[in-house]
Design brief:
Blueprint (H helix, E strand, L loop, with lengths): L11 E3 L1 H12 L4 H5 L6 H4 L5 E3 H15 L5 H6 L9 H7 L4 H10 L9 E7 L2 E7 L8 H20 L7 E3 L9 H7 L10 E6 L12 H21 L1 H12 L7 H7 L4 H10 L4 H19 L4 H7 L5 H12 L3 H7 L2
Antiparallel strand pairs: 1-2, 3-4, 4-6, 5-6
Helix pairs in contact: 1-4, 6-7, 6-10, 11-14, 14-17, 15-16
Length: 342
């Protein structure tokens, strides 16, 4: 059963992790339906490199893998080794451009919500040692072993991609029970872990943090970090109440309510709705604008509706209002956009 504490991971995340996990399951001989059962995911969504999913969908996918493969020692490690740095998008580029491993690690932890981790993570420096701690207390108990193994293998894969050398671990403590076969753990860590520990802790020489990175570039790193900030802000807007409202608007595009109607649906006053959205750095106007733009591009791409019909479906009383809004979004008129085939 899931821990009752509020999860620290964001509700929205890239679908790339679900793609990796699904392919992993297929490579282990599982059927696609077995991997995706109950998740609401399908091949079309997984094939979209820009798609986002809800974190609970990925947890359901992991649950399916654990049910089918959880009896295999170290199966989470095998899955985690597929998480190379280049699968993390702009977050990975930002780390690659950092001056040294310490800067990369701190930047990575600052924007941990852009990754696929369910474990909390932190870095401590003590005398000549560095300690990397993974906290999986909030992960559903039935999935904790797989998720810890996956996140652990993913962290070490990233470290190798950054520094081009294996992490010289001097000690490892893990909360999971000792498996019957230690070979995957020994290959990954290079040392025998202490199992059934109170916490998950990787200990290595502090000097590794000072290792310069071959891809260091201050200008690129600054640019990438700005993109990380923008992406994180966008993802957070799509979570919480803002995410619920966005999903509601997308689900019924022919009936876009005004703010009073939406507040009534949510059993709150429009003043309360406005205040709660403001707390998420959002507003109903911004969400409606985002949804209208997404729907306009989709409807223009289908080719089955006239511009007047699209404007009506998006709730514009006048065709000219739709034309002005679309040109503000895309820099071209709806007709030019449709003809360009973008």
């Amino acid at each position: 059963m899931p821990n009752t504490a509020t999860p620290t991971w964001p509700t929205r995340r890239s679908a790339i992790s679900a793609q990796l996990l699904t392919q992993f399951g297929l490579d282990q001989g599982l059927a696609l339906d077995t991997c995706l059962a109950g998740t609401g995911l399908d091949l079309a969504l997984l094939a979209d490199p820009g798609a986002e999913i809800d974190a609970t969908q990925e947890l359901l996918l992991i649950g399916n893998l654990v049910t089918a493969l959880g009896h295999i020692p170290g199966i989470g490690i095998k899955a985690g080794l597929r998480y190379q740095l280049n699968t993390y998008g702009i977050w990975g580029f930002a780390m690659l451009s950092s001056a040294n491993f310490r800067d990369a690690a701190h930047l990575g932890l600052r924007y941990l919500d852009l990754t696929y981790a369910f474990s909390g993570m932190r870095l401590e420096e003590r005398d000549d040692e560095a300690h990397f701690i993974l906290d999986s207390d909030q992960v559903p108990a039935a999935l904790a072993g797989f998720i810890l193994e996956r996140d652990l293998a993913g962290v070490l894969s990233i470290q190798r991609d950054l520094t081009a050398v294996p992490m010289p671990l001097t000690a490892v403590c893990l909360t999971v029970a000792e498996p019957a076969d230690l070979s995957l753990y020994l290959d990954l860590l290079g040392v025998r872990p202490q199992f059934n520990a109170r916490e998950n802790r990787l200990i290595f020489p502090r000097a590794l943090l000072d290792r310069p990175l071959p891809g260091a570039n201050p200008q690129v790193m600054q640019h990438c970090e700005q993109q990380c900030q923008a992406l994180l802000a966008k993802r957070r807007v799509r979570g919480g109440l803002s995410g619920r409202i966005r999903d509601r608007l997308l689900a019924q595009p022919g009936r876009l309510p005004d703010m009073e109607q939406l507040a009534d649906e949510l059993h709150m006053t429009s003043r309360t709705l406005r205040r709660r959205l403001l707390a998420e750095n959002s507003s109903y106007r911004l969400l409606l604008e985002e949804v209208r733009q997404a729907l306009a591009e989709e409807l223009l791409g289908t080719g089955g509706l006239t511009l007047e019909e699209i404007a009506e479906r998006l709730g514009y009383g006048e065709m000219s209002n739709f034309m002005h809004a679309f040109k503000r979004w895309k820099g071209v008129t709806p007709g030019q956009f449709r003809r360009s085939g973008v």
